[in-house]
Write a structure and sequence with these properties.
With 125 residues, the chain is an alpha/beta fold. It has a single domain, classed as Rossmann fold, CATH 3.40.50.2300. The chain has five helices and five strands. A five-stranded parallel beta sheet has the order 2-1-3-4-5, with helices on both faces. Strand 4, helix 4 and strand 5 form a beta-alpha-beta unit. Helix 2 packs parallel to helix 3. The longest helix is centred in the last third of the chain and has 12 residues. It is globular. The relative contact order is 0.17.
């Protein structure tokens, strides 16, 4: 499973990369710090999953996710945020799952393992 990390905080990108680098079946294929060029980066990198900071600079929420689903229909979005109240908005906008940045790292791993196993929702219904 090819993963792109989109977060403006280099520490978050680094921490997620470290968390996932030894996870079987997961490869980090790209990362970015803004939404500019995000869809193109997803398409060019062959990403299956985008871990996206819901407060990513330049992100237009639902509009960006609709464009992503049109240009990279097999790619699924997992929204990340430090604000749990953004969960419903992210899921309504097309994210398949939501992980709060304050949650244990096992939360993100659990979502990704479910997606890798074929669960299209990553555990959210």
């Amino acid at each position: 499973m090819n993963v792109l990390i989109a977060d403006d905080d280099p520490h978050v990108r680094s921490a997620v990369r470290l968390l996932l680098e030894d996870e079987p079946g997961i490869s980090i294929v790209a990362d970015c710090a803004t939404a500019e060029g995000l869809v193109e980066r997803v398409v060019c990198s062959g990403s299956d999953i985008v871990l996206i900071d819901w407060d990513l600079p330049g992100l237009r929420g639902g509009a960006e996710l609709r464009r992503l689903s049109n240009d990279a229909p097999g790619c699924r979005v997992v929204a990340l945020s430090g604000r749990p109240e953004q969960r419903d908005e992210a899921l309504r906008s097309g994210a398949v799952s939501f992980v709060c940045k304050g949650d244990a790292s096992d939360s993100l791993l659990s979502v990704l393992r479910r997606l890798r196993a074929g669960d299209r929702s990553g555990g959210w219904r």
